[in-house]
Write a structure and sequence with these properties.
Distance between the termini: 33 Å
CATH architecture of the largest domain: 3-Layer(aba) Sandwich
Largest sheet: 6 strands, parallel
CATH superfamily of the largest domain: Methylthiotransferase, N-terminal domain
CATH topology of the largest domain: Rossmann fold
Strand content: 15-25%
Bound molecules: 5'-deoxyadenosine, iron/sulfur cluster
Shape: globular
Radius of gyration: 24 Å
Helix content: 25-40%
Strand order of the largest sheet: 2-1-3-4-5-6
Amino acid sequence: MGSESFLKDVSLAPGAPEEEPARQYYYMALLSDLVSQRAKEIGRDLTACVVTFGCQMNARDSEKLCGILKKTGFVLSEDENSDFVIYNTCTVRDNADQKVYGRLGVLGNYKKKNPGMKIALCGCMTQEASAVEKIKASYPFVDLVFGTHNLYEFAELVYKCFSKKGMLVEVWEGTDRIVEDLPVDRKYPFKSGINIMFGCNNFCSYCIVPYVRGRERSREPKEILREIEQLVADGVVEIMLLGQNVNSYGKNLENGITFAQLLREVEKIEGLHRIRFMTSHPKDLSDELICVMKESKKICRHLHLPLQAGSDRVLKTMNRCYTKEQYLALVEKIRKEIPDISITTDIIVGFPGETREDVKETIDVIRKAQYDNAFTFIYSKRTGTPAAKMEQVPEDQVHEEFDEVLKCVQDMARERIVRFEGRVMEALVEEENTGKNAADALREMGAKEGEILLTGRLSNNTIVHFPGNASQIGTFVNVRLDKCHGFYYFGHIVTEQNA
Ligand code: 5AD
Ligand code: SF4
């Protein structure tokens, strides 16, 4: 097990240190001993499976969990019938909660067959007291419940959980703490997410995030830059800067740095090819940011700019702090400065009090803003948010409007994406496409013997599939976009360009 060399210098003699991250390294050393002991007893490695629900933030958190699991000797697996299963949950909409409860039932059955199995829950759902109560009452076989604020304590919590029987619940209401320098196991060797801030201060009236992720905290720019430099030295060519509202980055920092200034610094890192970021609140998107994006050679030509609703009245009750006109003016300004940019959005249908007229306003914005893609959601009541106390629109009454909005968005996206047909664009090759239609696709593309189907991502976030070979994964290639298939392209490599 590769953990020993990494942890052998950790001194266990004086007991657990108070300071972080030393305390977690101490617990990693203890956990590593415990894991190898158990592995000897059962005559095989201990397996661990991390299942991620929800957004990019959770995906990044899961990489942190995997980093610690790997360092302490667990063998990571995709199979939920593992010795240790961790559900990193989402609670942004009720169906995310229901998915977790449904799958927990299945896990309970696995555990009956493997009583040594441990089950942990973390993420946004566990920050809600009602969810924790439900888990205690209905899923007593869960061994560990922890929240978003103490994720950095994972090694300590797992060690404690594996050393005792019964459910360990450790959820904090908030924190102002950011612990750096813990291990991370990246899903992709060549691209990575990076948290630049945690939490949200916006309190959109429908949204549970500020309650479960806490107040906005920005990481120090030097920590962010150091992490990116290390990632680049480790082979990363594309990064995604992550925050609930990246445009308000730096507001709680003493040096008063803005997001645009941070981007300028990130741009200077040699060897880094592409910069993405997510998510931008329209109310905080500055001219300085547009200017930095326009001048940049590395910032991708993609902006995710959640609209949520098109009617001024609904926007006001949502507490979004912009009007339809202001939003459209912003989109126009961005498109004027950066004509080749792709703009995507999030839309909610069925917010309390939303009428047919209001939905028409949303559709009007979709037509005018010309989105390249949009995620459309049916409003979901989240207990504890201001919107939960407003008069709700019954869900069965909004399906028609939802379908109408979805159709409009999809028609628009199809119309927009086709504009690149025939162009040659640079793609980062992300993976082999092993889908059931891969062989047919290769035939349609006239692939040569031995070629596999690769999937790449363009700067504007569009996906393109083309024939190639496995050694090209993680590199940049120039691809001719031969045929648009709805939301993605079929293409072929024209000249190779090394990353
Ligand atoms: N119901 C439906 N959609 C929601 N979102 C956030 N909260 C809710 C809710 N209560 C959507 C918003 C946000 C995206 C991440 O999730 O559109 O931008
Ligand atoms: Fe939720 Fe609004 Fe914060 Fe986004 S900006 S996380 S929608 S409260």
